[in-house]
Amino acid sequence: MTSEATGVTRRHEFVLFFDVQNGNPNGDPDAGNLPRLDPETNQGLVSDVALKRKIRNYVALARADVPGHEIYMRDGATLNVEHRRAWTAVMPEAKPEDQKKLPKEAKARELTRWMCANFWDIRTFGAVMTTGVNAGQVRGPVQLAFARSVEPVLPLEIAITRLAATTESDAETKGGRTMGRKHIVPYGLYRAHGFVSAPLASHPVKGTGFSDDDLALLFEALGQMFDHDRSAARGEMATRKLVIFRHATALGNAPAHALFERVRTLRVHKGEAHEIGADATDNWPPARSFADYRVTVDREGLPAGVEVIER
């Protein structure tokens, strides 16, 4: 943490809606890279780790040259090298064997503060930095839950062909043509919940220094991260709606689950709107675009001290 950074002092929660069309939002390596599914409900899943990866990638692009916005968990990074940077900055006289254990409490806090001040994703999501060269561990103020599709999805396995052969033998035996498989979801609207803890951001000892500017960057990333994550597997993914609940206090003014229940998703067809799963929707065609849904936020009787922001 830098002396200029003031940690967030108000609690926040948010609901993120994003969709995928003819793509694989999060492949499961234990299932041949099929889209992740809840086997009991057939609802699609996207892990919190996948969402954090996209957020990190956006911040790396948007703030590449801005001090304090390095990314700790990035492609090709060697974590112990980053830990040694903190040791060199805080205790340049320390020998390599001294770096395996944390020093006394005050110096240990300086190490973690240096890491938080320089790495945006550490002061946001936290990190365990005890991999040989010990820089401590930090509990981040921002946490994300698994995203879940609002309705069951039906993954498809598509056969594809390639005209170029991999090896000489393939060229001779297969005439240069090879076959492959691609997994897609025709359409799915996903909902994820997120949490921002003010005490973990601004506490004088445990706080990471996650600031209001960092929070604004997080919301910016949530809105634009899919625009910079295109691939053959994820060609059409987009953030559709972000609903933010901002509390007036650090501890909050209402339970998170009660606020999340105010955000509802309805199915829409030919001017009619019904709850998902309602009998009236039994003969409706499957959803194939965001226009087949309506997201509503109940503002009636909103608890005092809670503000709703829709983006």
UniProtKB/TrEMBL annotation:
Protein's GO biological process: maintenance of CRISPR repeat elements
- Superkingdom of the source? Bacteria
What's a Pfam family in this record? Cas_Cas7
Q: Which NCBIfam families match?
A: cas_Csd2, cas_CT1132
The name this protein goes by in its record: CRISPR-associated protein Csh2
Species: Methylobacterium aquaticum
Provide the taxonomic classification: Bacteria, Pseudomonadati, Pseudomonadota, Alphaproteobacteria, Hyphomicrobiales
